[in-house]
Amino acid sequence: MPTPGTKTGNGLIDGGMWTAGDLASGRARSELRAQANVAAALHAAVLRSELEKHRSLPFVLAEDPDVKTALARPTAASLRAVDEKLEQLSQQTRAADIYLIDAQGLTRASSNWRLPSSFVGSNYGFRPYFRDALANGAAEFFALGTVSRRPGLYLARRVSSAGRKLGVVVVKVEFDALEAEWAKSDDLSYVTDSQGVVLLSSVPDWRFQVAGPLPDAAKARIRDAQQFGDAPLTPLPIRARSDGQVTTNGPDADARRFIAVQTPAAAQGWTLRLLTPTEPVVGTAATAARAVTLIASGLVALGIGFLVRRREAEDRRAAEREARRQELERMVEARTGELRTTNDRLLVEVEERRRAEATLHTLQDQLVQANKLAVLGQIAAGVAHEINQPVAAIRTYADNAVVMLDRDEPQPARKNLAVIAALTERIGAITGELRAFSRRTTGKASPVGVEQAIAGALLLMSPALRTRHVKLKRTGDMRELRVLGEPIRLEQVLVNLLQNAVEAVADHPSPIVELSVEATRREVRIRVRDNGPGLSPKARAGLFKPFNSTKAAGMGLGLVISRDIVREFDGQLTAERSVGEGATFMVTLRRAT
Ligand code: ADP
Questions:
Q1: Which of 280, 277, 258, 273 has its CA nearest to residue 185?
Q2: Which residue lies with its CA nearest to atom 11 of ligand 1?
Q3: How far apart are CA 187 and CA 370, in angstroms?
Q4: For residues 583 and 535, is the Cβ–Cβ distance under 8 A?
Q5: Which of 105, 137, 385, 587 has its CA 20 to 30 A from that of 341?
Q6: Are 269 and 193 in contact, with CB atoms under 8 Å apart?
Q7: Distance (Å, rounded) from C-alpha 17 to C-alpha 491?
């Protein structure tokens, strides 16, 4: 039976042991919390660098001319070229999928086009990332792939041309490698979205569980967008304890204790949470501290042995922690370096492309101007005649008016003066047209009246038509009809086509050129048809190619430049398959409201 003294002594020892244990575990815990914060920040940094690398992709692709062309004028060849480009890019950047959706939601090209799981032909019109990107320019959305059933972040960006929304380019990023990396550590890591739904996790079972209960409306929204498949969105198996720690009963059925920290992560509303186990570190620290108290009360031999082992164990753990930290830091450094190189390269590419485009634009403007002056040169003789004729007439009318006034016949003299005024007006119209036509313009598109453009072109071409006895037929009602373009450039295209038609019918006994206009709800088609020899298969193959001319003085640039001009307005210039004799060229332009 113990004496009261011994009892008191034992009580003291007990009390001392527990205090030392609590102090030690408190210190260990705050040290752990600091380490956990560093680890969480490193995880977030790696995640951010991975995302940033991929974020530049949709940006560059949305500006890519091949991508724009494939959406604006999809042909089997242009789509296949984009398929291949996306395939190559996804391999280079390790993006899971890259694909191109048209404005109706239909996938037109995809990096996985060769695979049975190809997205080509699938409609993603219902996906929020598509709708948001089309409406607002860009969108990011984490979801489960409807085909692959693999989760990932969808980075979407709108593709536009001349103010028209052509579609959306999407890059899907998956995070398996990152999650596998996280899973190697003792810490449990996961990322939640703004609603608290787990998107990424080192514990696979936690994905799509929720940090707190979700309102029914939010659940319905998630289901409608098929965001997380049929995930039940059950609560995470993590419980808070009164001492500020948390326990889990998910993967570790023995309900281990953790210190939980969190940090904002790479995307909007995302939070990265990291749980670092307090067992065995804190528990060991506390036990060891208690042992130290026992040493003080006389159990020297056992105590020293324990102390040494504890030291060793702590040193080992510290070394492990340090190694882990260094490994993470090294990873971040490597990824950041990789990211920097990719970014630098992309920046250089963007700048190069911008410069090349600017040069091309200046060149194109110069070419357009050169062609215009060349056309003017060709039609100048006819137009000069057009001006000389009324000038001669004015002379005669004026002379006659003088005679009439001398005879005191003011009435007929006044009539003559009225005719003179009308003639000067006609001369004014022609010289005004000539001046406007030769002026240098930019290709900025705005609504243009079709009737005015045709009237301008005919004013310049009518002398040639008349001197060569070409009959001009006009069909179609073009009043009030407007297209997107630039008036002078549109006239230039028409003059080029009319000039070619007039030259083509030169040897025909009854030459005819027909100009017709036809409108649909969205387009206006202007056709220039002639009854000349038409286009041989060889001539057709060479059409629209620079310096391809069958004419002695031809440059073979008229059609090339005209097609460029029309394309700048998002339209098309084509040679129609001829039915019967002659050739037909068609300009299709977007209708302006
Ligand atoms: P150019 O008129 O200087 O030859 P274009 O680019 O305007 O340059 O035309 C290229 C070629 O296309 C012409 O040389 C001609 O062979 C053919 N072509 C163009 N329009 C017609 C037409 N209406 N009928 C027959 N051939 C045409």
A1: 277
A2: 549
A3: 70
A4: yes
A5: 137
A6: yes
A7: 98
pLDDT band at 440 (very low <50, low <70, confident <90, very high): confident
Confidence of residue 415 (pLDDT cuts 50, 70, 90): very high
Q: Token pair 């692709």 is at which residue?
A: 61
Query: Residue 558, SS3?
Result: helix
Check residue 560 and give its pLDDT: 85
> Poorest-confidence range of 236-250, 252-266, 276-290, 525-539?
276-290
- Residue 570 φ/ψ, nearest 5 degrees: 70, 25
SS3 category, 26: helix
The one-letter amino acid at 471: K
- φ, ψ of residue 129 to 5 degrees: the values are -65, -35
Distance 72 CA to ligand 1 centre (A): 27
CA 30 to centroid of ligand 1, rounded, Å: 83
Q: For residue 296, what pLDDT band results from cuts at 50, 70 and 90?
A: very low
Q: Which residues line ligand 1 (CB under 6 A)?
A: 496, 500-501, 504, 530, 532, 535, 539, 543, 548-551, 554-560, 583
State the pLDDT at residue 391: 87
CB 131 within 8 A of CB 205: no
Half-sphere exposure of 101 (CA within 13 A, CB side): 28
Contacts 24+ apart (CB under 8 A), 368-371: 368/443, 368/489, 368/492, 368/561, 368/564, 368/565, 369/440, 370/557, 371/492, 371/496, 371/557, 371/558, 371/561
Residues in the chain, how many?
Answer: 593
Average pLDDT over residues 378-390: 78
Please tell me the predicted confidence (pLDDT) of residue 338: 74
Q: Which residues contact 512 (CB under 8 A, 6 or more apart)?
A: 470, 471, 472, 473, 505, 530, 531
For the chain, what is the mean pLDDT? Answer: 83
Q: Is the pLDDT of residue 50 over 70?
A: yes
Tokens encoding 104? 């109706």
Cα radius of gyration rounded to whole Å, the chain? 40
Token pair belonging to 381: 């003789």
